[in-house]
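Quick question, first post here. What does this chain look like in 3D?
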Amino acid sequence: MAILRGLPPADTVALAARAWDLGIGVVEVPARDPRGMEALRATVRAGAERGVPVGAGTVVGLRQVREVGACGAAFTVAPGFDPEVMAASQEAGMPHLPGVASPTEVQGVMRAGGRWVKAFPASVLGPDWIRALHGPFPDLRVVATGGVDGRNARTFLDAGADVVAVGSALGDPDQIPLLSGL
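> Answer (accepted):
Ran it through. Tokens below.
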């Protein structure tokens, strides 16, 4: 999964195209401000031309759920778990990926009907946290996000993450070969 944060729309679309060309099928564009919303709209259009979904990131409020839905976002992502945001996103037809950093948050997500979580920040939680989390939650699906790049992505996948999310690594030519090998 690629996270394309804080870039002008044209740069966001160019990096999304790089991600898609590398075989990264899911792109998230954080939409926390007008510039992010503009980048989201442009990337959703580019994704539609390729038949790939584009989601909205850093979705933390109900109004924002409506706004990103109007932009055509296929899913929403949040840094934390808010049951109201999750419910609103799902009611709008957009699966929601809430961020978690504790088993209590995981239980809340699962109680609300979720099976996917964003382990955030993954670089702080570490691969061992993800491995341990699967003990009590064997059916949980995990996206490792935050501090993941081409150098450590394999470690998170080997620990049980189903998906790794990368951001700035897509703009680093030295990491492109590392990412294409995943």
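The beta strands are 2-3, 27-30, 54-57, 76-77, 96-97, 99-100, 116-119, 141-144, 163-164.
Residues 15 and 170 are 7 Å apart (CA to CA).
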